[in-house]
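Appendix B: a complete holo record

For completeness, this appendix reproduces one full record from the ligand-bound portion of the collection. The bound molecule is S-adenosylmethionine. The inputs are the chain sequence and the ligand SMILES; the output is the full three-dimensional arrangement of the complex, encoded as structure tokens. No fields have been trimmed.
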Amino acid sequence: MKNIEVKVSADGSSTLYRPDLNEHYHSMNGAVQESLHVFIDAGLKMVCKNDIHILEIGFGTGLNALLTLTHKAERVIHYHTLEKFPVPNDLLAVINYPSVVPHPSAGEWFGQIHTADWNREVKIANGFYLTKMEADLLMFSVDSTYDLVYFDAFAPEKQPEMWSESVFQMLFKAMRNGAILTTYCAKGVVRRFMQSAGFKVERLQGPPGKREMLRAMKV
Ligand SMILES: C[S@@+](CC[C@H](N)C(=O)[O-])C[C@H]1O[C@@H](n2cnc3c(N)ncnc32)[C@H](O)[C@@H]1O
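The structure of the chain with S-adenosylmethionine bound, as generated:
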């Protein structure tokens, strides 16, 4: 991947921009605000378990992983994340999450998340076990059972193949009963694919700058 640019979103936090897709990794209305709203508040905070297995689609800058760690409290989290195109180190070095994520260990943890080996489980902090998988979602066969899925692919207009009914069917099978999948996307066609795959889907208020988002539950 060439020519990725670092940008600053409206809440002061960094994001990346892919000119070839004309697509940002996060909302330009606020990268940290969006991740907190969509994945932490509508996802992590809804899971009532002390040992949580999370699958993220699209590791990118590692922001969702970092915020999950800073919000995990006393719980144990097994965090599996998929990425087809790992972000180069020179870009990671200028991303400002170590200074804008309000936690005393944010900088140390951001570094550890990115230096962790790929394709094996690494303990980042007490109770936080990270497995970064360099893999293509479209070729992925899941062999774990998840309580929570962060679906953070590029937008359906840019990568429609990531938002297909068959992808949601695969994720449905990989989730336990009562597990939830959360995403910033609110498109009707995506909601219908989720419903056809078996999920019960809710429309929730979106993050700043976005009217709605989706949360799907396996019931
Ligand atoms: C919206 S960004 C994810 C942002 C990320 N969660 C973060 O906190 O920075 C989408 C990510 O999906 C990745 N991606 C694109 N195609 C993929 C594929 N087929 N399989 C896995 N990941 C893919 C992109 O490289 C990008 O990192």
